[in-house]
Design a protein that fits this description.
Blueprint: H1 8-16, E1 18-19, E2 26-28, H2 31-34, E3 39-43, H3 50-62, E4 64-66, E5 70-72, E6 77-81, H4 86-92, H5 97-103, H6 120-135, E7 141-142, H7 144-152, H8 158-172, E8 179-180, H9 182-199, H10 207-225, H11 230-237, H12 241-250
Parallel strand pairs: 3-6, 7-8
Antiparallel strand pairs: 1-2, 4-5
Length: about 250
């Protein structure tokens, strides 16, 4: 269950079900009923309302929940994940500290995607399989040039953003094509890159490297806007054609 994608007013019912106030008979089963001896994955657990956090804490501590009568739940493994800083959420009062310790038995810290870009090809292949099933498409490959483009991006939104970019690229590909090309990735990344340049400073970066990355990004977008026409691109950027060719050679764009 993605806790950030469900209306806070119905999350409690989704988790614990709904029961008749007079007879305590189930009206709607919840995830704890359905996941008998299985697992519940709570994604973005920091978005659970505080009242639901307390009720979840009661379950973890007592394995029961208070309705009109005390009712015991089946044993369930709970896996929780969040992209937010849990310690900060506790400090701000938006996440219950006792629930934090109850959930924090075993912790797995997943590095940001920008710090493990070598994993992008394998992750992208798995995401393509998932998206093909969702869209009813048969996109089976990402070109080497397109993959290199993905690996140069800084991914402030991590794997979720990668999935979003790939889904848009699948929409952009030509009819009958089963390969995502670099042009599809460039179009999908356009708005993301502007945000990345403004908000994300890559690790171990210098001012010169950041400026180079931004300049390369502007050149790529200008070329894309003018379908690779060098004269129109130079005019759009307000530089000479000679300067444009120098920059394109510098960034290996030709």
């Amino acid at each position: 269950m993605n806790c950030s994608a469900i209306d806070p007013s119905v999350i409690e019912r989704e988790l614990f079900g709904e029961y008749d106030q007079d007879s305590s008979k189930p009206v709607k089963s919840g995830l704890f009923d359905e996941a008998f001896s299985g697992s519940i994955f709570l994604d973005e657990v920091t978005d659970l309302p505080l009242g639901v956090q307390l009720r979840l804490l009661d379950h973890l501590k007592e394995r029961t929940i208070q309705m009109n009568e005390q009712r015991e739940f089946n044993p369930v493994r709970i896996i929780a994940a969040t992209s937010k800083n849990l310690e900060k959420a506790i400090h701000e009062g938006s996440f219950n500290i006792d629930l934090y310790y109850a959930l924090n038995r075993i912790t797995i810290q997943i590095p940001s995607l920008r710090n493990r870009k070598a994993d992008i090809p394998e992750i992208a292949v798995q995401l393509l399989k998932k998206l093909n099933q969702e869209f009813g498409m048969n996109v089976g490959e990402i070109s080497d040039e397109a993959m290199n483009r993905l690996q140069r991006y800084e991914w402030p939104g991590n794997v979720r953003e990668l999935e979003n970019v790939l889904s848009r690229a699948m929409i952009y590909i030509g009819p009958g094509s089963s390969i995502i090309q670099v042009e599809d990735i460039r179009r999908s990344l356009f708005t993301n890159e502007v945000k990345t340049t403004e908000e994300i400073l890559p690790e171990k970066s210098t001012l010169a490297s950041v400026m180079d990355d931004y300049e390369r990004s502007v050149l790529e977008k200008a070329l894309d806007e003018h379908n690779g026409n060098k004269s129109l691109t130079a005019n759009r950027l307000g530089i000479s054609l000679r300067s444009l060719y120098y920059k394109l050679e510098k960034f290996k764009l030709i």
